Amino acid sequence: IVNRTIAALLSSSLAVGVLALCGARPTLPELVSWLDVETLLLLFSMMLLVAILAETGLFDYLAVLAFEMTGGRTWPLINVLCFFTAIFSTFLDNVTTVLLMTPVTIRLCEVTQLNPVPVLMSMVIFSNVGGAATPVGDPPNVIIATHPSIVKANINFTTFTIHMGVGILIVCVQTYFQLRYMFRDINKLRHSVPRDILELRQELAVWRRAAASLSSYSRDEDIVRRALEKKVEKLNMMLNRREAGGGASKTDPMFCSTLAQMKQKYRIRDKPLLVKSTICVSFVIIVFFLHAIPELQRLSLGWTALLGALLLLLLAERDDLEPILARVEWSTLLFFAALFVLMEALSKLGLISWIGNMTENLILQVGPESRLAVAVMLILWVSGIASAFVDNIPLSTMMVRVTAAMADPAGLGLPLAPLAWALSFGACLGGKRLKTLASRRTRAAKDPPGYRGRGSK
Length: 457
Known about the structure:
It contains 21 helices and no strands. By secondary structure, it is mainly alpha-helical. It folds into three domains: 37-189 and 269-327, no CATH class; 195-251; 333-430, no CATH class. The two termini are 21 Å apart. It holds the Pfam family CitMHS. It is a multi-pass membrane protein.
């Protein structure tokens, strides 16, 4: 399988070559003008913010905090991990968030004797769903929110988040209950019967045999038998709690020892940097929401994020920027740049307009009062089904152009906002259909070390 960045570069080069053969060879300045600098700037700046924030050890600390809060109980632990992942993915790069939490999550699964694959997949799904709530949480949303037609329609950060947030909350509830139903048997979250449960069963069997061996003919034997039965009842309650994913008691010496070791290993490594990072990220998010004020719309999302990243670089007082810049996903930025060139070349070749005309002709088959509903359903399901089998980033890059054409007064003249929400829901949520094909989830959903092959069950 060819790397997606190489594939995008080859495809864009081929499209430009075909365009040159057709007599419309673009110049180098024209090719550069095809790049969506706003999208690239937003992605680069958010990557910088996450890269610096990751150096504080915050993500590892939150995972250990979840272990402490839940006492290692299975479903409460998974719930808190998914909650943390969804919240961070709302404003930060979702795949980076999952990748940063993966090592400590695998360690938590080893301690609680869980199979990390379903746990990580649950986190990936909630990361995907949470990232769909804002324009900066998922790359398809970045492409949609920064498109010129969307910006001209006054769909700002606040408007986007409010409209998408309501639907995402409903999706989160539905996803949670679906996961609970899929793993209603708690043993499906484990490799096999955990060792501590086997030891409890063996100990319980020993105490039961001891209690059964005593008769009730003498008072002394009756007292001993009752004491043994109380011990059996206590062990049985403990066994039931463990089998139900109840975890260990917070006063359990083994739990306390494990928690102390993990706190020592996964701790906040740089508290001053954490405070500075929190201030800068909060500043960026607040300014994002303030874009609802017309006077503040002159500063775009990309430039807002860049100012926040530059502020954090100044506050961090790092002499060497190479380790931070090494964390930036340059291949992803190059992938986006190649896609922008490819889509513009295809647009000049007439492919995008042909797809738009075919879509318009299909929508025109219904009455004027039903055209918006048909267009919304068409965009939602086409983008949702297609993004389950192909990369949702190029799909969004193409579909946002088709969506803008539907809203053109010279064409159908449909309202742009509902079409944008439909495209966002379809591209973002459809991408979680197959873990091996959704572009921003592929690396995070790979089999963890030591568990190869189990993720494809």
